[in-house]
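Bumping my old thread because nobody answered last time. Still need a sequence for this structure:
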């Protein structure tokens, strides 16, 4: 069997033609395709505003910056995520404070958020792990009680729903990523969506050096050359050919999500009765979009040996995630005690990510599942 990755893009001829037509046009960056992509994302999500940027990481960075939080502020987030989530807090000179996760969904635990709140807490960044929305109702109640901003890192969860409403309509700011392993891709890319006009205006400037081109009021009505740098922004612009790819991919998102759900169901049917494996739990009030399909092994199987066995079988199993506080930068800067996070630690030691991507064939699923059974027979103590 050829190598089966844990995730990969699906680019078709339509996508290629859209990109080529932009490459042949006069605008390859900061042209009309950006707004068209943003409008298409808003229409899909059902929200008012969108700012497309060059990565999910950039989107997180300007989302935090747009809140303009006072020096010394803390933002509570999950440690069970990619480092970009909490790095965005540090980029902005603020302090990440981690809360433990729930043992069933691996999403941030609202009860632990509550325990971690101090007078310096100003926001929460919650991550919809693997594509399953967090307990948004509980998080919103906490935010309202303590007057906190909410940022939803939905890099795993475009198209997911909570109580029948699409993600992108709950937090003050919601982040998407268009990296190739995600549901739709622009190569690299990301976006912030919001229903708050003021935040949208700030984000639009922060994407491009914090520069306001509408600066006539400073230099007079004839000064069409005028621009004014209002904030310390960076160059986080996405190109028009990437946006063209995004528009084309977005048309297929519903179908990509259906395929991921079919694959998840197939894994579930076959693995349900394997006693050393715990399958992901899905809450009743959500639509899960399965960016990742993970399983938990019980204590009778050594996860690292299992990982090695699967990799030797040419299966690109992976590990999402090493808890952020374990990375050496975080250890040196914050010296966080892993014992504070018993659930994250337990999950980290037992979890493994199986391949999951829309183009995955029935034959590949069968091969992965057969290899899991063989690994278990081989490794069970
Ligand atoms: C939860 C989460 N947040 C943020 C990011 C960063 O996105 P990007 O790779 O587009 O910068 C990722 C990427 O994997 C992610 O998984």
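Sorry it took so long. Here it is:
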């Amino acid at each position: 069997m050829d190598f089966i990755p844990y995730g990969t893009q699906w680019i078709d001829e339509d996508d290629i033609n859209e990109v080529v037509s932009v490459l042949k046009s006069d605008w390859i960056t900061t042209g009309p395709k950006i707004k068209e992509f943003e409008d298409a994302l808003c229409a899909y999500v059902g929200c008012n505003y969108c700012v497309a940027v060059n990565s999910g990481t950039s989107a997180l960075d300007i989302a935090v910056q747009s809140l303009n939080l006072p020096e010394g502020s803390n933002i509570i987030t999950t440690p069970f995520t990619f480092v970009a989530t909490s790095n965005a807090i540090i980029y902005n000179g603020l302090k990440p404070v981690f809360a433990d996760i729930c043992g069933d969904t691996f999403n941030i635990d609202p009860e632990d958020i509550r325990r971690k709140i101090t007078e310096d807490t100003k926001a929460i960044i919650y991550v919809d792990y693997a594509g399953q929305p967090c307990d948004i109702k509980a998080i919103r109640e906490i935010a309202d009680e303590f007057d906190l901003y909410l940022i939803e890192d939905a890099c795993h969860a475009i198209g997911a729903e909570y109580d029948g409403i699409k993600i992108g309509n709950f937090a003050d700011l919601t982040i998407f990523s268009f990296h190739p392993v995600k549901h739709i891709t622009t190569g690299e890319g990301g976006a912030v969506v919001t229903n708050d006009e003021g935040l949208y205006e700030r984000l639009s400037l922060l994407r491009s050096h914090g520069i306001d081109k509408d600066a006539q009021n400073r230099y007079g009505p004839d000064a069409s050359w005028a621009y004014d740098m209002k904030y310390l922004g960076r160059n986080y612009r996405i190109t028009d050919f990437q946006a063209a790819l995004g528009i084309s991919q977005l048309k297929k998102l519903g179908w990509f999500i259906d395929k991921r759900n079919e694959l998840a169901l197939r894994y579930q049917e076959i693995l349900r009765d394997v006693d050393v494996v715990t399958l992901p739990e899905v809450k009743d009030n959500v639509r899960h979009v399965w960016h990742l399909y993970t399983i938990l092994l019980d204590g009778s199987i050594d996860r690292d040996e299992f990982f090695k066995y699967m990799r030797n079988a040419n299966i690109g199993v992976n590990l999402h995630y090493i808890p952020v506080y374990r990375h050496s930068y975080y250890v040196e800067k914050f010296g966080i005690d892993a014992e504070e996070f018993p659930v994250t630690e337990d999950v980290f030691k037992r979890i493994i990510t199986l391949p999951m991507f829309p183009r995955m064939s029935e034959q590949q699923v069968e091969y992965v599942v057969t290899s899991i059974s063989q690994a278990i027979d081989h490794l069970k103590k």
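Residues 55-57, 60, 81-82, 84-85, 127, 153, 155-156, 177, 179, 190 surround pyridoxal-5'-phosphate (CB under 6 Å). Let me know if any region looks off to you.
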